Amino acid sequence: MVKKLKKHLFPIAKFFFDKYTLKKRKYTYEGITVKISAEVFPPHFTISTKILLEYIKPLNLTDTNFLELGCGSGIISLFAASKGANVTASDINQIAIKELKDASVKNEISLNVLYSDLFENLSDQQFDYIIINPPYYPKAPQNDKELAWFCGENFEYFEKLFAQLPNHLAPNTWMILSEDCEIDHIKQLATKNGLSFELILEKSVVKEKNYIFRIQKL
């Protein structure tokens, strides 16, 4: 019942959320600041980004190769780079890419920022960590901004991701999902491509459960 109610309330919440984010906003974590425009996925009120940041905070990332696939604001990538990781941050949103490059300079944190539709421009690289905070609402995105929220009416994002992922898996390939999404269906799509989900963290925030899964081969 609660899950269904949240799904019905989501369009209303997103309307007010979009209103708030019409202006460029700052977001700061551990002394790292990014400026986020309306066209980029915002970490301000979304729980997933903060959970991932807190999860990687105690890790020793020195000299590891770290990929944030679909980086959005890039705050996770910047934080990982500040911890000594060799970071690649990719996105399909050119505005997000430009803003992250600017943030890299202003925060004096070096990382590789590039345009890539999933692994399209990452074919020759190997990583120790791959972090994925995916779009998971089943609706066709109408623009670059909505690509961060909607995975397609038939979960096309996940179909494409899981078809490519077996050739790029890192020892630590992590995806965060909310109880609000169709987790069982997403898992089925992964299984179809020889992949399995291992739960490594469950965290409830404001009565919403979020899960970090390690993705590995069956």
The number of distinct β-strands equals 9
- In the CATH hierarchy, what is the class? Alpha Beta
The name CATH uses for the topology is Rossmann fold
| Bulk shape | globular
Task: Describe this structure as you would to a colleague.
The chain has 218 residues and is an alpha/beta fold. The protein has a single domain, classed as 3-Layer(aba) Sandwich (Rossmann fold). Helices cover 32% and strands 26% of the residues. It is built from six helices and nine strands. Helix 2 packs parallel to helix 3 and helix 5 runs parallel beside helix 6. The longest helix is centred in the first third of the chain and has 19 residues. The chain is globular. The termini are far apart. The relative contact order is 0.13. The N terminus is likely disordered.
Please render the helix and strand layout as text.
Layout lengths: L1 H19 L4 E5 L2 E5 L10 H10 L8 E5 L5 H8 L3 E6 L2 H13 L5 E4 L13 E4 L23 H9 L7 E7 L4 H10 L2 E11 L2 E10 L1
Parallel strand pairs: 3-4, 3-6, 4-5, 6-7
Antiparallel strand pairs: 1-2, 7-9, 8-9
Helix pairs in contact: 2-3, 5-6
Summary of the model, kept short:
The chain has about 220 residues and is an alpha/beta fold.
